[in-house]
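From the methods appendix. Each design record in this collection lists the tokenized structure first, followed by the designed amino acid sequence. Records were kept in a plain field format so they could be parsed without special tools. The example shown here is representative of the layout used throughout.

RECORD:
FOLD TOKENS (193 positions):
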């Protein structure tokens, strides 16, 4: 995919702030610190467009990025970070759930799971919810560069067994591994929408 333009459009803290022009949207979902911002920057070949942080749980809004004037990336708040208050976690979950339930423009959910660990309970719950609600999705095992090929093969097998209904692909933001495959899935979903 040739990126001719990629720009941050807005942060939405409530539904009234969502973009409204009807372009298809790709939602990025995952635990805090799973590497969503790094993956988005890698997909777009831009450093720092999606802000990365050493502090998990920093993203508290849905961040919209317009790509090639054709589609949006929607970076949803990370889930499962224990150092934020229960009420804040609840607000994030409510906003994300509302977006996922109601967003007609949603073309694909990209669920990120850290390849260094088996899927956690919240990862499995989210995937079950996406499947139950017929949301198109792909699972991306991030940080693939942190594992040897043998370790990655084993962890991909574990993830695939835990989530057998979803397509799973390995991704490395620093090396670009999986970039073309993920773009192919994104473009196929946009074409269907």
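DESIGN:
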């Amino acid at each position: 995919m040739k990126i001719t333009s990629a720009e941050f459009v807005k942060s939405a803290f409530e539904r009234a702030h969502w973009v409204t022009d009807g372009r298809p949207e790709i939602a990025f979902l995952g635990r805090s610190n799973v590497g969503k911002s790094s993956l988005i920057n890698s997909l777009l070949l831009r450093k720092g467009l999606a802000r990365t942080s050493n502090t998990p749980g920093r993203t508290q809004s849905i961040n919209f990025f317009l790509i090639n004037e054709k589609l949006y990336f929607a970076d949803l708040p990370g889930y499962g970070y224990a150092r934020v208050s229960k009420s804040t976690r609840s607000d994030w979950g409510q906003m994300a759930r509302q977006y996922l339930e109601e967003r007609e423009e949603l073309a694909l959910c990209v669920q990120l799971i850290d390849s260094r660990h088996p899927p956690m309970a919240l990862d499995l719950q989210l995937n079950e919810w996406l499947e139950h609600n017929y949301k198109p999705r792909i699972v991306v095992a991030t940080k693939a560069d942190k594992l040897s090929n043998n370790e990655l093969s084993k962890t991909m097998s574990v993830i695939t067994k835990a989530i057998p209904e979803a397509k799973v692909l390995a991704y490395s933001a620093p090396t670009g591994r999986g970039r073309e495959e993920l773009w192919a899935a994104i473009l196929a979903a946009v074409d269907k929408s």
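APPENDIX NOTE: Confidence is low (pLDDT under 50) at residues 53-58, 81-85.
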